[in-house]
Amino acid sequence: MELLVSTLVSPSTGSSREERPPLLYLPGMDGTGDLFYRQAQLLQQEFRIRPLSLNHPESGDSWEALADWVGSQMEGGAYLCGESFGACLALQVATRWPQRCRGLILVNPASSLRRGPLWLAGRFLLPFLPPGLYRTLSERGLGFLAELNQMEPEDREQLRRAVHSVDQEVAAHRLALLGSFAVDELPLESLALPTLLVAGGRDRLLPSVNEVRRLAERLPQVQVEISPSSGHACLLERQMNLRRYLLKRDGVLAPTLFSASGTR
């Protein structure tokens, strides 16, 4: 649901809602779109923010269907912010409709998953776990997913709720999708979009630092930011501030944001 606060006139820029470019948030494996609120509060002066839920009945169950559905939700000149699973989806959308995108923000992209053993184990075991064991593992896995000590209690609870909201069958299907995601086959070298890549230095779920550096070698306009103390679910951490990265004077997205919103 689009944040109501983003409909207001920005007090610092004087930009109305209509003058600010849209930013669509594509969530991780939970698919809820509910975990972007901390960053949304920071970015509301520059964007009209719309978190998308991948649990929508019309969103589809393949990469192609998901990308088509996201494309149908986009206005021209939109920014895409994808986290983990959502970062893979953002790359799919951007390479299908680069003319609709103005820039990309990819956080701990899960495009590395198929190159490790984790997805194989999950792919073949997850569908057969007893429901009680699945819930127990989901709870115990929170410390593996996130640096919980970097989060406020209410943010930890929101993360817990999002994780527990994912049906076992849905989780298995999304894991299978990540296993089939072939980033090497996407034409990233021709993707002329300014792209911010963010990785958590303490990501214990995926080798995100190595992955963003690998992606950066293929993307023509790229800015890499490593948050040394951040985990995988870093957008809920108290020290994470995407706006600071986006508005760096030497950042690749800063010129488009300055021209769009009048920020100085």
TrEMBL record:
<feature type="domain" description="AB hydrolase-1">
    <location>
        <begin position="21"/>
        <end position="237"/>
    </location>
</feature>
<dbReference type="GO" id="GO:0016787">
    <property type="term" value="F:hydrolase activity"/>
</dbReference>
<keyword id="KW-0378">Hydrolase</keyword>
<dbReference type="InterPro" id="IPR029058">
    <property type="entry name" value="AB_hydrolase_fold"/>
</dbReference>
<dbReference type="Pfam" id="PF00561">
    <property type="entry name" value="Abhydrolase_1"/>
</dbReference>
<protein>
    <submittedName>
        <fullName>Alpha/beta hydrolase</fullName>
    </submittedName>
</protein>
<dbReference type="InterPro" id="IPR000073">
    <property type="entry name" value="AB_hydrolase_1"/>
</dbReference>
<feature type="region of interest" description="Disordered">
    <location>
        <begin position="1"/>
        <end position="21"/>
    </location>
</feature>
